[in-house]
Amino acid sequence: MRRVDVPEVAGVLSTDDAIRSAESIAAVQERSGAIPWSPTGHTDPWDHVESAMALSVVGLREEATRAYEWMRREQRADGSWPMQYRGDVVEDAGSDTNFCAYVAVGVWHHFSITRDEDFLARMWPTVAAAIDFVLDFQSDRGEIAWAAGPNGRAEAALLTGNSSIFHSLRCAVAMAEHLSDPRPEWEIAADRLGAVLRHHEHAFVTKPAHSMDWYYPILAGALRGSAAVERIDQRWDDFVVDGLGIKCVDHQPWVTGAETCELVMALDAVGRRDHAVEQFANMQHLRDPDGAYWTGLVYSDGKRWPVERTTWTTAAVILAADVLCGATPGSEIFR
Prior knowledge:
Elements: H1 15-26, H2 45-57, H3 61-74, E1 84-86, E2 89-92, E3 95-96, H4 97-101, H5 103-114, H6 117-135, E4 147-148, H7 159-178, H8 184-199, H9 211-219, H10 225-239, E5 240-241, E6 245-247, E7 254-256, H11 257-269, H12 273-282, E8 296-298, E9 303-304, H13 311-325
Antiparallel strand pairs: 1-2, 3-4, 5-6, 6-7, 7-8, 8-9
Helix pairs in contact: 1-13, 2-3, 2-5, 2-13, 3-5, 5-6, 5-7, 6-7, 7-8, 7-9, 9-10, 9-11, 11-12, 11-13, 12-13
């Protein structure tokens, strides 16, 4: 087995802390390989993949592989997955294009850490079918509709979701090149989507009150350089709460761990390392002794909200720690 160096952020998160956090995710994993939000929560394909990525980072290779095998088995004939499961029951049969595309990020991330060629070859048809499904929803301009219901009707294109899809397409193209199975149509699709994200934000349904719309074009790699730095500076005071992390919604008195850690990775990508480490340290008040993380805190009254410790929040912490210290080759995936 390929050796994995476990992330450590000096003075903030030790290797033992990171391992305990990953083990808290693995403890929630179902026998099928699915990783729900919490022991009583539902599973969705995007957050499932993010949790699997965290398992890869700390070397829980068997658990991570089981998670990807679940994706392979559950994929529908058209390349999609249902939006939501509860155990073995599908609760929402609709398809979210961002959810479906994200398998490319997870598979490429796992391979970058393990260099397991057999795993990559086994998952390649799953990734290829998912990307082809997603690109059926791309407009002539380049944006991608976010969902399809049972009747196949496409919905509006969302800024955060399209940013994430852009990242997924880049990972899928890298995978295709590595496997000597070039997909030039994917490259063209990614270029078109990137251009819309950079120059035609009006093409998307935006949610400016939500922090994800603020930093996600940067986290996903669509924006870099001075444009990315300017975007960070424009809304910093709207979302950042001193000493606690960042708000999920600009007008609500709560901070959330996953969004803070995603901002950490975006800050790292634009060279704001000091700010990134500071925000990573600030959100550690959400950590529980067993290594799991609470989703958020209503700082106006000091109460946890929602009252749940989510696998994807814990996963975001592990991924951010890896980005900050470069423990594994997977830390490069957001750069």
